[in-house]
Amino acid sequence: MERKKFLKSLSLFAASMPVLLNACEKDHQLASMGDGADVSIDQSCTVTPSETEGPFPTKSPSSYVRSDIKKSDGLGVDMEANITIVNVNDNCSALQGAIVDVWHCDVAGNYSQYGGTRMQSTNYQEVHWFRGRQTSNSDGLVTFQTIFPGWYQSRATHIHVHIYNASGNSLLVTQIAFQDSICNTVNVDGSAYGYKKGMTGYTYNANDNVFNDSAALEMSTVKGSLAAGFNMEITIKVSA
Amino acid sequence: MQNRVITLCYKKIIGKNTRGIWNEYVFQASFAEYKIQVQNYDQKKCYRSYSALLQAKPEASNLPFLLSGAAMPYLKQLNEFIPDVTNNLGKKTLKFKKFSLEIIESSIDDPNQHKIAINFFSEPVLWLDTINDFLLVSTQQRHSDIFDTELIQLIPYLNIHSLTFKDHDQANSR
């Protein structure tokens, strides 16, 4: 078995020789390695070993697992979103280890998703903006670096949140609301940051089908300014 | 004379029994992501299979996109080379930037049911000739006296996805 491994390493060496010769032309005088003996060909009826795919794959977390979820277009006012998860079954103390997914639209009101008509293909370098996943720390906190969301017809400004327990079982699907006043500031005064829609046709929280009966329970606290960026905080209560 | 510029699409199917470490990682990651994301459409886990869920809730058709986030790190590890499709020397030469992920079938509790396909869309290549079941292509899209060429074998699940005619003058003026 060891010999087999050794012979295999020799064959890999042989396969990479043209590159080596090219890279190290001064090293032609190097002594040859191995004894040069022929390899006896395996005659047994066993599956040929599979070889390493190059480059060697490594196990990686989902691309959602990141705190900076911004789109690469540079549009939007920066916003740090701090979301604290607490457990109502534990006197609203911090829930550690919860998986928190967030997603929201860009300044124009669009979500990242398959687009176009060519079999709904997408560039592998450009998708999944404004979608992220973090696991809550011992304070129940997750933080995302993002922008203040845009808006689209029939909805008030919002961020979607889906909270799972550590095993990935859903605990709560909810949305984060924003005060109408801050949305007004961003969309009326923020055209330099890419918010071009203004507030014509905007759906205020009182008229929003999601928030009209629950805005007080899902309202965020936002501090900051267009120039300095925003800091958003909210506590979400789950039954874990 | 007209140049034929084509893009190729290779559909790579990955299921429980697909061998190869890259395939296994993609399988595990996409199945784990399915079990999480499916709860956006079926929080109470009423539908055991993807097909049953899709029939009941058409909006679940966004799940393939959501699963692609789990496959993304593995796509990046390919360094833009379409897997499995090689030239006649056995080397991967077709490059991609675009892809899409399909869910063929899945289940919230049975990994044996989970099967996906990743469609890799090649960058445009010039289709110079066809020799038996090989396409003679070049990544050079401008007319030249000498083309660097590749013989790409037409293997199963490899398709010509788009075809554009360009004449030499047009190509040269670019």
Which bin fits the share of residues in helices of chain B?
25-40%
Give the percentage of residues in beta strands of chain A: 25-35%
Low-confidence stretches of chain B: none
Q: How many DSSP H or I helices of chain A?
A: 4
Radius of gyration of chain B: 19 Å
* Shape assignment of chain B: elongated
DSSP strand tally of chain A:
10
Percent strand of chain B? 25-35%
- The structural class of chain B is alpha+beta
| Coarse shape of chain A | extended
What does this protein look like?
The complex is a heterodimer of chains A (240) and B (174). Chain A has 240 residues and is α+β, with helices and mostly antiparallel strands. Chain A has helices at residues 2-15, 17-23, 180-189, 215-218, and strands at residues 78-87, 93-94, 99-103, 122-123, 131-135, 141-147, 158-164, 170-177, 221-225, 229-238. In chain A, a hairpin with a 3-residue loop joins strand 9 (221-225) and strand 10 (229-238). The longest helix of chain A is centred in the N-terminal third of the chain and has 14 residues, at 2-15. The model of chain A is unreliable at 6-30 (pLDDT under 50). In chain B, strands 1, 2, 3, 4, 5, 6 and 7 form a 7-stranded antiparallel sheet that branches. In chain B, 36% of the residues are buried. At the A-B interface, strand 4 of A face helix 1, helix 3 and strand 2 of B. Strand 4 (122-123) of chain A pairs antiparallel with strand 2 (96-105) of chain B.
Summary?
With 240 residues, chain A is α+β, with helices and mostly antiparallel strands. Chain A has four helices and ten strands, in the order H-H-E-E-E-E-E-E-E-E-H-H-E-E.
